[in-house]
Amino acid sequence: MVTKTTLIEELKKHFGFDTFKGNQESIMTSLLEGKDTFVLMPTGGGKSLCYQLPALLMEGTAIIISPLIALMKNQVDAMRHFSEEDNIAHFLNSSLNKTAIEQVKNDIISGKTKLLYVAPESLTKEENIEFLKTVPISFYAVDEAHCISEWGHDFRPEYRRIRPIINEIGTRPVIALTATATPKVQHDIQKNLGMQNAEVFKSSFNRANLYYEVRSKTKNVDKDIIKYIKNNEGKSGIIYCLSRKKVEELAEMLRVNEINALAYHAGMDSITRSENQDAFLLERVDVIVATIAFGMGIDKPDVRFVIHYDIPKSLEGYYQETGRAGRDGGEGQCITFYANKDLQKLEKFMQGKPIAEQEIGKQLLIETASYAESSVCRRKTLLHYFGEEFKFDNCGNCDNCLNPKKQVEAKDELCAAIETITALKEKFKADHVIDVMLGKKTNNIKSYNQDELEVFGCTENSNERKLNAIIRQAIIAGYIDRDIENYGLLKVTKSGHNFLKSPKSFKIVEDTEFNDDNDDEIIVKSGGTCAIDPILFSILKELRKKIAKKLELPPYVIFQDPSLEAMATTYPINMDELQNITGVGAGKAKRYGEEFLKVIKAHVVENEIERPEDLRVRSVANKSKLKISIIQGIDRKIALDELATSKGLEFSEILDEIEAIVYSGTKINIDYFIEEIMDEDHQYDIFEYFKESESDDIEEAINELGRDYTEEEIRLVRIKFMSELAN
């Protein structure tokens, strides 16, 4: 039996620490006593040590089941660093050749190897099962155990086969460890691993040193990120993107703008991936741009920022990825760029999957949207999601708490929501409940005759955003429950029924409204504006207005606001610099540039301005190649949907590219495609609308023209309009 004194002595001897963190000692004692042990501990809490030290102290070899080759390599390297013997730890996976596998097996047989890391796929191989049957095993550790659950953020079907294989090899104590698990996921893990009677150790999910912020994701997102990194020069950071393509593009964009960055994703060859990971760990590069494949178990304590270019698929994923910042207890900035259309894209990706899986995915996305859009303390929302109560309304370290919104009384609306959920017999989701409250006669509502209910239209003077905020905040307050296991149906809790009997004040803050296409709105921690020089910005707007009036065109046709803001930030004083401004390009620079350059030069001289050339975002050559190939495709009159498919783009993405081409001043002709898919009257109405309109905003156009016109039709005619009149 290992005593407490012995444990601390062994900790000092093997790892150089004088004391244990949090629950570490109790967890190790449980495992050393031969008990199944479940560990829920946030990233940076010291999970790995909970099985590493017992493995060194117990007879036999510990089998550590881990999902990623990169993670295994990192852990094995760390263990060898602590020991004098390299054979103390090994991994067994598909990256090893036959000779290396034989060496690993020999070291295990000789008793030198105390920790063997295996991927679940390797564990299921017959030859490995037969080999491990002959080995004295101290215990099994299932790392990243949330991979077992379909409700976890990184579900892997092969993880669900672990228990039967353990039974086949030989039963020994099991320790399951994860940094992210809701109560539902925890139950799933224990049930699947057959460890319902395990000793459970939960640490608080609160990482007080992490600052959380959600920003509106506009077309300026690349520029925003570059500016942020340059303001945090020399600090280590990770940027997460959902697609491999975006990872490659963004890493290249950062390098072009003199930021020391590398890419990391599962599509790269293993040597490059490994080299890039090591370069980050050894601080040869400051920034890694990665998919979620990067970071699991990466022991780099001084990551100072984690940026999410795309909102993650679940709050578990978000929590784990942000948890890689500030593991040393120092500063950790977690910045997320959010656009609702990204969630719609993620929902589209689920199509084709089994219905049950789609429903789970949708519920996880709803929780993510609630977190992003809510104006409540981010820490409070996150901890509530993981079943932990944060007892303060203001954490002082998130964007919502540093910039609190005014509270509004919502007692009556909450009563109405509780009555509506009850009247609907607790069988509907939030969006349906809100439609009933607003009195919307949707087909769904009419089919259930719910438009005849007394609660129908009970809050018709309210709006969807406010009612969403009320329901979200009532869930956190414990009056309503969202049954995520059952399609997200809303239920009224005991506290909710009591509230209805005896209502009291219920104040809420309304959700943040995110406008996906609004380039002007960039939410920054310091509360700054887009244009560094507001005086020059207003001068340029006046000049644009004058030119537009002379040419009888709407002002936005000349240059859009983001282009003027960029001019009022980087002060271009020659044609080359001007055409590098977003939305300008060679064509527009030539057509309208002279007058703008003249005004900017005069302003720079008059005010003795030192031009911040380092703020200019340099574009990547590969992007130009794509634009050229799109222009060539249009010249050959290839249908735009076919052109999108050939470039690996969604239809909306190719429209983004074509809009960028046209807004930069290049004239193109897509009449051949428009005439194929749209009648003349539709074309005429949309064209005339843009001729008269003060704005080229798509949402405004849809509202004005009506729902007979699709967003794609309006965007296509807007491209035609801009090309013919602006270029």
Characterization of this structure:
The chain is an alpha/beta fold and 727 residues long. The protein has five domains: 4-202, Rossmann fold; 210-351, 3-Layer(aba) Sandwich (Rossmann fold); 408-508, Orthogonal Bundle (Arc Repressor Mutant, subunit A), CATH 1.10.10.10; 534-615, HRDC domain (DNA polymerase, domain 1), CATH 1.10.150; 621-726, Orthogonal Bundle (Arc Repressor Mutant, subunit A), CATH 1.10.10. The chain is 49% helix and 11% strand. The strands form four sheets. A seven-stranded parallel β-sheet has the order 3-4-2-5-6-1-7, with helices on both faces. A six-stranded parallel β-sheet has the order 8-13-12-9-11-10, sandwiched between helices. Strand 12 (303-308), helix 13 and strand 13 (332-338) form a beta-alpha-beta unit. The radius of gyration is 29 Å and the shape is globular. The model is unreliable at 517-530 (pLDDT under 50).
What are the key terms here?
Rossmann fold, 34 helices, Arc Repressor Mutant, subunit A, alpha/beta, 727 residues, seven-stranded parallel beta sheet, single chain, six-stranded parallel beta sheet, 5 domains
Q: Brief overview, please?
A:
With 727 residues, the chain is an alpha/beta fold. It contains 34 helices and 17 strands.
